[in-house]
Amino acid sequence: MSTSPGGWSELLAREHRAAVSVFAGGILVFAINTFLTAASLPSTIADIGGDEFYAWVVTIFLIASVVASMLVTRALAQFGARGAYLIGFSAFAAGSLVCALTPTMPILLAGRLIQGLGGGLLTGLALAVVQIALPQRIWGRAVALISAMWGVGNLLGPALGGLFAEVGLWRGSFWFLALFTLVIAAVAARVLPRGRGSGERHPLPWASLAAATETAPASPVRRR
After folding, report:
1. Alpha carbon 15 to its chain's center
2. d(CA 113, CA 56)
3. φ, ψ (nearest 5 deg) of residue 171
4. Per-residue model confidence as pLDDT tens digits over 133-172
5. SS3 category, 96
6. Within 10 A of 153 (CB to CB), how many other CB atoms are there?
7. 36: closest CA among 157, 162, 180?
8. DSSP helix/strand/coil, 222
9. pLDDT tens digits, 34-85
10. Which of 150, 174, 149, 179 is nearest to 164 (CA)?
11. Alpha-carbon distance 90 to 189, whole Å?
12. Is the pLDDT of residue 198 over 60?
């Protein structure tokens, strides 16, 4: 027997609201970060140097996120929805803190790598965990809301990045990301299922991982 789709009111009802905020928040921090960092990057380089690594600030984040997104199934099997999400949020927050405190561009790149690993896991988990934590009749609404977060991030990211750069506080953009991420992580710890996962061992997609890393430029690109 077919199940009629649920409405927005059911998706945002009290029993689902917190879980939905976790799914949407994971996508939102990724989307905001992408554009926020790009907007504040000129101020960052003016402060700590490293102009020759300009292209890597974005590239290393994107490569790491692609790699991490391929490990979602394995993470869910090993740690469950709650554990996998907390790993993703923790990595993203830790990477943001490294970026906020960095004295040099190489350390910033290390922070961006950690950020990317956390962000890729969060984006992959959003669609996977919807099917675990929500009833099937509202999956479509949940996916629509999650997708809308990319548009919200596209608007907020450049605005926030420009604001922090304008007042000379580019590090504040990373502090903001770390704080925002930790708030959502606290919600995830409270509302997501606590199961440890199936424990099934999924082989690592080595071929796909190798292909993803080959997209990196052969050498750092200097901004002109």
Report:
1. 24
2. 10
3. -65, -30
4. 888 889 889 999 999 999 999 899 888 888 888 888 899 9
5. helix
6. 21
7. 157
8. coil
9. 888 888 888 899 999 999 998 899 999 999 999 999 999 999 999 999 999 9
10. 174
11. 11
12. no
Token digits of residue 84:
């996998």
Distance of CA 22 to the CA centre of its chain: 11
CB 81 within 8 A of CB 133: yes
Residue 177 in contact with residue 29, Cβ under 8 Å? Answer: yes
Side-chain half-sphere of 83: how many Cα atoms within 13 Å?
14
> Which of 2, 164, 19, 50 is CA-nearest to residue 96?
164
3-state class (DSSP) for residue 126 = helix
Q: 125 and 84 in contact (C-beta within 8 Å)?
A: yes
Helix, strand, coil content of the chain in percent (nearest 5): 80, 0, 20
Token pair in block for residue 9: 């009111």
8 A C-beta contact, residue 16 and residue 136: no
